[in-house]
Automatic annotation (TrEMBL):
This is ATP-grasp domain protein. Residues 138-273 form the ATP-grasp fold PylC-type domain. Gene3D superfamilies: ATP-grasp fold, B domain (3.30.470.20). It comes from the Bacteria. It comes from Gimesia alba. GO terms for molecular function: ATP binding; metal ion binding. Pfam families: ATP-grasp_3.
Length: 445
């Protein structure tokens, strides 16, 4: 007997999703009862299994013209699109945006605006300066693109040549050592709900990532008790001032040398890469809540009950024994070609089943060195077992894609990079603090 595909949403309303990578959001859409239509740079195998896919490989004019052929759809965007408000405006001419428009983006993505906004708040933004600023002390500064994504293009100011520094599309941000976290919120018209917190993996050698490059994360929800109130205030302040609608993330740095010290690094006013981890952990269709939240901003909408329902849903989930879930984006250490057999590892499971892998390239796809290969997941009863699960799968997929430049790169060596220090649960955060990337911390490499 053929196994019924639980992701068969034929006959369900279609949701347009546009971004560099849309697979995670597409699976969220299916869990929420929608049929995704995706404009995607990679058009991976597992995305094609569940969605109508428009490859985002040509000039925008081509795929935007394709979107005009559809009837008017609700639409959202994922990573990278926040840097292209002009494209968002073009899509809005035909389709109904459920999320942040260009005016909201200008504020949420302006580091100088956020610094002023949070000046007297419990969680402040990391100080920024315009290019051309000359430090007068030993403080280290980062040179960052104003329209960056995934940590690409970030460098230490003292490591780059002066002709690059004068680039007007960049800014300087004080280097703030600490543990990178990401808090996820959903903004309703009346209030903003904190969904949870994830730890971020940044520039990790186990995943062949470059310095500062985002390469995954792990759930740490429920939020640490001393941080909950400051995080909730941060979410409300940013959402109200930037007029954010629906899902958004705040990237943070926790400085364990100071009591409960959190700094805001940046705001991602969209479905984030770690949204799916909290969705799988809470077993809650977060994209459904996102769409409901966006509708609450429509004229004549008066709904004072939905946000409290979501809050109770989150609180109820946090009282359960939640699994720890991690994901790692594996980058190619050398040129490779996707094999045929990886597709055999796909299986359709219950909606909140935690997969082994995602973003699976189609057979025969050329994967240049430095490009993402696939996303790998780990799960466990605690942080250590969760990362052990992730390390085992990293080793398997590196062998599968023939990415291992040396044969001694095993699950054990991957785990040592993901979990370099044996530490108790109570010492988890302080055990992974690294101020100069000298301790081998899996958070900063």
């Amino acid at each position: 007997m053929n196994q019924q595909n639980p992701f068969d949403n034929s006959g369900k309303p279609r949701l347009l999703i546009v971004g560099a990578s849309t697979r995670a959001a597409a699976f969220s859409a299916v869990r929420a009862g929608w049929q995704p239509v995706c404009v995607d740079q990679y058009a991976d195998q597992d995305l094609r299994e569940i969605a109508e896919v428009i490859p985002k490989t040509e000039a925008p004019a081509h795929w935007i013209e394709s979107l005009y052929q559809f009837p008017t759809l609700d639409w959202i965007y994922t990573g990278g699109m926040e840097n292209h408000p002009d494209l968002i405006e073009q899509i809005n001419q035909k389709h109904r945006l459920r999320g942040c428009g260009p005016e909201s983006l200008y504020r949420a993505r302006d580091p100088f605006y956020l610094e002023r906004l949070l000046k007297d708040k419990p969680i402040q933004a990391v100080p920024c300066r315009p290019v051309g600023f000359i430090p007068d002390d030993n403080t280290r500064w980062l040179h960052k693109p104003l329209k960056g994504a995934g940590g690409m293009g970030i460098r230490f100011l003292d490591s780059i040549s002066p002709d690059i520094v004068i680039n007007g599309d960049c800014y300087l941000q004080r280097y703030q050592p600490g543990i990178p976290l990401s808090a996820l919120f959903i903004a309703f018209r009346q209030t903003t709900v904190l969904i949870g917190v994830c730890l971020q993996l940044i520039g990790n050698a186990a995943l062949n990532a470059e310095a500062f490059q985002f390469c995954g994360g792990m759930t740490v929800s429920p939020a640490l008790a001393p941080l909950r109130n400051p995080l909730e205030e941060l979410g409300r302040t940013v959402a109200e001032s930037c007029e954010i609608q629906g899902i958004f993330g705040c990237d943070l740095l926790l400085d364990p040398t100071q009591t409960d010290s959190l700094w805001l690094n940046e705001v991602n006013p969209r479905y984030t890469a770690l949204t799916e981890l909290l969705e799988l952990q809470h077993r809650t269709p977060l994209l459904d809540w996102h769409l409901t939240a966006c509708r609450s901003f429509e004229e004549h909408q008066i709904d004072t009950t939905t946000a409290p329902k979501l809050q109770k849903c989150v609180e109820r989930a946090e009282k359960q024994p939640l699994p720890y879930i991690s994901k790692g984006i594996l980058y190619a250490s050398r040129d490779s070609v996707s094999s045929q057999t990886v597709g055999n590892r796909l299986d359709f499971r219950p909606r909140y089943h935690i997969p082994e892998c995602g973003d699976i390239p189609c057979a025969g796809t050329a994967i240049p060195a430095g490009s993402p290969v696939c996303t790998i997941y780990g799960v466990g009863e605690n942080h250590e077992s969760c990362l052990k699960s992730l390390a085992d799968r990293i080793a398997w997929f590196e062998r599968h894609f023939d990415l291992q430049a040396c044969q001694d790169k095993t699950a054990s060596s991957a785990f040592s990079k993901l979990w370099p220090v044996k530490t108790s649960e109570n010492q988890f955060f302080t055990g992974f603090f690294s101020s100069r990337n000298e301790s081998g911390s899996f958070l900063e490499d």
